[in-house]
Amino acid sequence: MAGTSGETRIGISGWRYAPWRGKFYPKGLPQRQELAFASRMLPTIELNGSFYSLQRPESYLAWHDETPDGFVFAVKGSRYITHMRRLKDVRIALANFLASGVLALRAKLGPFLWQLPPSMAYDPERFEDFLSLLPRDTSAALALARQHDERLEGRSWLKRSAKRPLRHAVEVRHPSFVDPAFIAQLGRHGIALVVADTAGRWPLLEDLTADFVYLRLHGDKELYASGYDDAALDQWATRIDAWRHGRQVKDARRASTRAAPRRARRDVYCYFDNDIKVHAPYDAANLARRLGVATGLGADGEFAA
């Protein structure tokens, strides 16, 4: 797996899980120290509290300060936008989300994840409006955040910082998105299609539509519960290695017959969401090891020295 490749980050979706305490987390570790611990075991975490409700600037500031230099958060977009508004007329909702403090993560802010509900079918016009609204850098995000409504008065983060690019990924769950027109639309906007392994429940597509790949592994046999054995991890490692070197795998599961644009490399963000039985952090560490990505966990699951 030699040669120039994109940045590869392997991590977990969320970190606050009661079954992990005394197993992944050392016995007696205070809950307030769990993020600090997890962020030193793995180089990235998907922040999913932002999906359920608007967080506050002081929370994002604390998460920034509790994690080491070089750590990156992926941030899950608000379900008010994706599940309640269903992407319709969401300018103010998106402004509120961006004003809630997410930009306080600064250099630790990685890609945004927009997960759509299983009942939401592909609507090209509505989707175009949403994709066009997504900010592509922090300056554009700040400008949109300043349009927040009265609900964010007194609890917003609107400080200017260094201009950095922003990335977005979309996870779909309705079969109508298995459509070449949808793939082309994502490609025009440079938005990544999430490669989602969901134990066969929802579409698994590997079309490459951006300069990075966003992968979510929810469990290959039982959703959110089953772990990945060595053979499965070997297969995902092979696919990630191709993607990070700018290639597509020969047996890619795609909605479009058009080849993805050639690139020298693609960054890869991969998150394990099979958290119920405490598989996620260990599966992440085992996959990372196959790809030469450093973690704080040893080969036997013990903490590395």
Count structural domains: 1
CATH topology category name = TIM Barrel
Output the strand order for the largest sheet. 6-5-4-3-2-1-9-8-7
Name given to the CATH homologous superfamily: Protein of unknown function UPF0759
Helical run tally? 10
* CATH class annotation: Alpha Beta
Helix content: 25-40%
Pick out the low-confidence regions. none
Would you tell me the overall average pLDDT?
95
DSSP, total strands: 9
Helix/strand-derived category reads alpha/beta
Summarize, please:
With 305 residues, the protein is an alpha/beta fold.
Notes on the protein architecture:
With 305 residues, the chain is an alpha/beta fold. It has one domain (8-290): Alpha-Beta Barrel (TIM Barrel). 30% of the residues lie in helices and 14% in strands. The chain is built from ten helices and nine strands. It has helices at 34-41, 49-52, 57-66, 79-84, 91-99, 124-133, 138-145, 180-189, 230-244, 280-290; strands at residues 8-13, 44-47, 72-76, 109-115, 168-171, 192-193, 195-197, 212-217, 267-272. Strands 6-5-4-3-2-1-9-8-7 form a nine-stranded parallel sheet. Helix 9 crosses helix 10. The longest helix is centred in the C-terminal third of the chain and has 15 residues, at 230-244. The two termini are 25 Å apart. The mean pLDDT is 95.
Task: Sum up the structure in keywords.
305 residues; alpha/beta; TIM Barrel; 10 helices; globular
Which secondary structure elements does this structure contain, and how are they paired or packed?
Elements: E1 8-13, H1 34-41, E2 44-47, H2 49-52, H3 57-66, E3 72-76, H4 79-84, H5 91-99, E4 109-115, H6 124-133, H7 138-145, E5 168-171, H8 180-189, E6 192-193, E7 195-197, E8 212-217, H9 230-244, E9 267-272, H10 280-290
Parallel strand pairs: 1-2, 1-9, 2-3, 3-4, 4-5, 5-6, 7-8, 8-9
Helix pairs in contact: 5-7, 6-8, 9-10
